[in-house]
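Case study.
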Amino acid sequence: MTLNILIPAAIGYVVFLFVIASIAERRAERLRQAGRRPRFLRSPLVYTLSLSVYCTAWTFYGAVGYATRSGLEFITIYLGPTLVFVGWWSLLRKLVRIGKAQRVTSIADLISARYGKSNTVGVIVTLLAVAATTPYIALQLQSIALSFGAFAEDQSLAPRQLAMWVAAGLALFTILFGTRNLDANEQHHGVVTAIAVEAVVKLVALLAVGIWVVWGLADGPADIMQRIADADRPEWRVQPSRWIGLTFLAGVAIITLPRMFQVMVVENADESHLSVASWAFPLYLMAISLFVLPIAVAGMQYLPGDANPDLYVLNLPRALGQNGLAMLAFLGGFSAATSMVIIASLALATMVSNHIVVPLWLARRRHASEASGDIGDMRGLVLSARRLSIGVILALGYLYFVVSGGSRALASIGLIAFVGMAQVLPALIGGLYWRGASRIGAASGMVIGAFVWLYTLFMPSFGAGVLLSADLMAFGPLGIGWLRPHGMFGVVGLDPLLHAMFFSIGLNALVFVVVSLFSFPSPVERVQSSQFVNAFNLAKPEDIPGARRWSREMAENDAEDLLAMSQRIFGVAEAQKFFETEARNQGKRGILPDATPEFLDLLERELAGSVGAATAHAMITQIIGGRLVTVDDLMAVASETAQIMEHSAQLEAKSEELARTARQLRDANEMLQKLSVQKDSFLSQISHELRTPMTSIRAFSEILMDEEITGDERSRYARIIQDESIRLTRLLDDLLDLSVLENGQVNLDIQPGNLSELIDRALMSSNSVQPGRVFAIHRRGPEEAITLHTDTGRLTQVFINILSNARKYCDAGQPQMIIDVRRNRGQVTVDFIDNGSGIPKKSQALIFEKFARLTDTLQAGGAGLGLAICREIMHNLGGDITYVPGQGGAAFRVVFPVDLTARTRAAATAAQ
Amino acid sequence: MDAARVLPVLGFILILLPVLWTQSGGLGTAGEAVYLFALWFGLIVIAALLSKPLKNALHRDLTQPRPDPPRKPGDDA
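After joint prediction, the assembly is written out as follows.
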């Protein structure tokens, strides 16, 4: 097999990818126009497969080489990501959630957005990513050059030239499918689908070689295990520090590598895909590393000792005459390399254009056309910037490949890149979980870490004498041994990789934390930090009260400028549609909405999806004139919130008061209704009362008019008439008395008297009521001897009324009456307690009302005015009469002052 | 939820076991490879079993509204 077949095969494969990508792109476009989401293109399966861009040529070729050199250590590169994915729900989910909420376009964008949309931070991350990814891309180019070279041992082939053509081809592919449009979501259906297909190709290829080795060359698993045991070398023993360090490093890399961030966060269509990827991606990793060790052992056995172990996958089938398998392996390696280069250059180009090219251009334009305010065609600019960046990045990778000589082990190059990107870790994790993390802290930490990485790992990786002189490597700069690249602070003898990792990340984290503790974050930073740290507590970032990043005072004409700017980025139709929708949401006609803080936030987020948070922020700031939120604005928002809270507390208190009043009104209403019913019944009763004597008076007076009655009869009838008239008069007197008492117009006859005598008199008078009943009276002699100064006649009337009622209503077999007198300073309390069944609870509130009667019958013989009159009398005497429940019978308490003066009386009247 | 919390930590500890074996002579590369792949597969299976209920639980957390503040007596008007 020669290059004559190989090169067409490679080109054919690339064409195949082009076709797949463009089909996917077209399909997505068609579905989008039909208003549907591309379901299959954005399924969990495609998501998981696209994640496999983690497995590059390093995995495909390098893992076997790694295993040949260091045994099982290669597996740590896949165990670290497995652990991260198994714990997806904490870190990865948060990343994806924030990525979606903030419309993040790259890892640099995420970190710059977190630290107050600072472009400085974005630039640092971008430069770091470019520096770290360049060797990684070089690794892919090297692997492709190597694999071509393996097939063309007998032909003269310049690997550099070949790598250049590959780089150019990949640049073309990435530009075609990665920068086709400036999407607000920055998602690339075509590229992702192509990557997913490539994931299948590389897995199938490696599995095919592995299965052929285990069941073709060896006699199944048991035999291959035996061969592995036989091939065991001393250098295969697990080195504890490297084992732990590399597992950690790989776990970090899966989060921080720009291409992983691109497929995992930016291209993520649905957060729930993560839950599938949490086990499916580790499964993919396991499948791809399953046959690494068997292939390595077989390579050691069947291939000459000087063969490059990085090419065992390819050379093993080729040397043993399996040309078809060799071809498949070549394509697998090719796809592994190309997928990485495509995604990495795409991710880096986004960062470079958003954080370096566009801000630079904006700054230049600002000086050039301050007056006109025209900012030109941004869409074309951003896309050209990306295309250019892709070219530059691939050129850099090619340059690294040329300078480093393309001769080193693949795995060691990859690890250099890992450590470089790991410098982002402290700022990233700190930003997600620590609100105190500040912009200056993050920037200085990353700068320090990056320099330590460059000095201790990146530059020495070219070999002594290329970038760093051999003298410096051996003895340190200016002979300072403590600063030797591989022996910082006198730590000598540690593995260079671990040494660099420890010092770069350690110093980075230390500086980050210390500077953060001593710096003061800006208002925008505070708002952003709360949105990042509390990402899970909010359904949408707009929901946080006071999370505005723009102040309130906005001029009307700003919206027009904003539209002009947005049109240059979204395109005219898209931008106008967006503005119109927002205007409608605000309840306005036309297409220009008010430039409210909420609208600015929304617009900024949309723009951020295209050009990154920092640039979007800078552009809006430029137009509306830097009216960023200030501390005062935050304070205003806070006090607004406080006012609202206070207001709602007041409302609550008011509503409680209203509820109380309503209850009182309801009670009063019930009382009124009861009284109205009673009044009706009283009226009919009083009519009856009045009619009964009137009827007999009329009847007897008619008889008297008859001449035929005797004188004896005449006088008897006349007496009856008189009795009835007296009864009538008494009734009318009572009514009159009550109305006089009620109006407070009564003339009191105040004179001295002894309470004991008053009670005696009352008892005597009441004896006439139902004289047949005998009451046992219990009195307390000495206390009763109180000299009163009041209207004794009225007071006696009250006593008589109570005692008469008791005689009438007490239903006990042997009725008793306790009269209990107490004196408390100027007040006298007289309790009348009988041993009957008392007054039912529901009637207790009514007995003192006028016309109240407990029974409907006429047994009482009164009109229900007795107690009402008593109460009015007692009020007029400056006291009160109450019913005391729970005394074993009906109990009335009469309270009145010993000495009724004008003053106490006035006070008592006023109290009513 | 708690099982999901423990899983990565448990996995990390178990992955470190070969380090300890190396200190004490070790199983040899073949034995360690078998152990690691078995462990790996176990982690994947557990993660797969947990992923569905976990997803549902997290989704519930997100969509369920926060409980209203307790009503005060007297609000019935």
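Observations recorded in class. The first strand of chain A starts at residue 483 and ends at 484. Chain A has 35 helices and nine strands. We will return to this complex in the next lecture.
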